[in-house]
Amino acid sequence: MPIVRFLLPDGSEQALEVAVGTSLMEAARQEGIEGIVAECGGGAICGTCHVHLQREYFDRLEPAGMTESALLQVVPEASETSRLSCQVIMSEELADMCVRVPAVQLEL
Ligand code: FES
């Protein structure tokens, strides 16, 4: 299974095997990655699963949809390579990606 490394705000790193077809958020929640709150369970409506991707991997994804884009404008610590991890579906193309978890997630 492809590996994704999550960089946590405290500087530590956690590597996860993520099945192709699974969202990053689902994998992170199953493994208890701290900082991925995912209050809406993957509906792209809470913004609490925000992560930063590396540019090269960000560019391999389909652009964010309207709802995701709107949320990404209001999440704390937004960057040019921000995505909602519930909308990033694992593929072989994303193997070895490194994902940074922001220190703060949106509070509803
Ligand atoms: S889990 Fe709510 S937006 Fe991703």
Describe the sheet with the most strands.
5 strands, mixed
**Class derived from helix and strand content:** alpha+beta
The radius of gyration computed from the alpha-carbon positions, rounded to a whole number of angstroms, is 12 Å
What is the count of helical runs? 3
Report the average pLDDT across residues.
Answer: 97
Shape: globular
Helix content: 10-25%
Query: What letter string, H or E per element, gives the SSE order?
Result: EEHEHHEE
- Ligand types: FE2/S2 (inorganic) cluster
Distance between the termini: 34 Å
Biggest sheet strand order reads 2-1-5-3-4
Count the E strands: 5
What percentage of the residues does DSSP assign to strands (E)?
15-25%
Uncertain runs with pLDDT below 50, 5 residues or more?
none
Topology:
Blueprint: E1 3-7, E2 13-17, H1 24-30, E3 50-53, H2 55-58, H3 66-72, E4 82-84, E5 97-100
Parallel strand pairs: 1-5
Antiparallel strand pairs: 1-2, 3-4, 3-5
Describe the 3D structure.
By secondary structure, the chain is an alpha+beta fold. 17% of the residues lie in helices and 19% in strands. The chain has a 5-stranded mixed sheet with strand order 2-1-5-3-4. The chain starts with a strand and ends in an 8-residue tail after the last strand. The model has no long low-confidence stretch (mean pLDDT 97). Bound molecules: FE2/S2 (inorganic) cluster. FE2/S2 (inorganic) cluster binds at residues 25, 38-40, 42-49, 84, 86.
Give a short synopsis of this structure:
By secondary structure, the chain is α+β, with helices and mostly antiparallel strands.
